[in-house]
Specification:
This protein has 384 residues and is α/β, with parallel strands linked by helices. The chain has three domains: 35 residues, no CATH class; 94 residues, 3-Layer(aba) Sandwich (Rossmann fold), CATH 3.40.50.10380; 220 residues, Rossmann fold. 42% of the residues lie in helices and 12% in strands. It contains 16 helices and ten strands. A six-stranded mixed sheet has the order 7-6-5-8-9-10, with helices on one face. Helix 5 crosses helix 14, helix 9 runs parallel beside helix 10 and helix 14 packs across helix 16.
Amino acid sequence: MDPQSTPLVDPSSPVFRAHLGGKLATLATQPLRDAADLSLLYTPGVAQVSRAIAADPKLAATYTSVRNTIAVVSDGTAVLGLGDVGPLAAMPVMEGKAVLFKRFGGVDAVPLCLQTGTVEELVDAIARVAPTYGGINLEDISAPRCFEIERRLQERLDIPVFHDDQHGTAIVVLAALANAARVVGRDPADLDVVVSGAGAAGVAVTKILLRAGIGHVVVVDSAGTLHVGRAGLPPHKRELASLTNQRGVAGGIAEALVGADVLVGVSGGTIPESAVARMSTDAMIFALANPDPEVHPTVAHRHARVVATGRSDFPNQINNVLAFPGIFRGALDSGARKVTEEMKLAAAYAIAAVVEHPTADEVVPSVFHPGVAPAVAEAVRQAV
């Protein structure tokens, strides 16, 4: 069947026109005008550079594109809200990610979409191509596999490995929460937070909030609250249960939200208004499922003073692009071999600081604010 005749395809749509032929191309940084240029850029001149790098591999950072290039790696198993759509369908998203890296951080990024396999197979495949890159940005890999893949790659490679679905979201959530707490006049250490969702983003959000000294966190999945007495939890949820819910809150989302100050939704689905109505005065609701937030902003505003979503058509968009371009810019510039927890915290507070006077409608800066990526990059460099 001709793809142009597929019901899902509308060639006249601005969306399809914007993606026609893909969104990336190769750009040469040196001119190739004549035989003299050819002898410099390719044989015989290039052999001198290859010999030098073979003798001292560190020279690759100076004389190749490795110094400013990362791989955006996915197996297409958890793409946006679409789920397991495979590597080909993941390509438009990974190309888009590469465009964002270049536009906001000046980082060259190459989409690398792999046929899915076991954790070991994916780790081995990524590790084998890693010498070509200065960093690895993991993207849209299903949980809980993503946790093990990231951990193993961090142990195996000596370049930054960063799973953006986890840590990009977590960093921007912490930035927003730091400023939201200022708006409502609360000490973050005294906040009661409910995280709805225990997947990739939920795990990372919970951990960064705990590292930042947030007072009390309860995590809720589709079966209810996580707590140490709950049987049958997989390892990543067992770990969360041991770190959170010190008061032993049981039940579901409605019970968890009683008196809560903050709701962070990273689960999809719908949280009923009757549940958010039980939150504290001056509550903060970050309903981040996209395109359909767990609590619609019009409903959230009836019960919360600060509302954030993952959408661009409402104030306070929690968008990972506030974090990942600057994080990799800083990591590449500093020669960092890892993205550490200290770097993540520094990035979050740098994003928050860009908003000098936060309000209920501005707890994070616009993704187009020119100061965001440089501020994050500098914070990361200082934290190395």
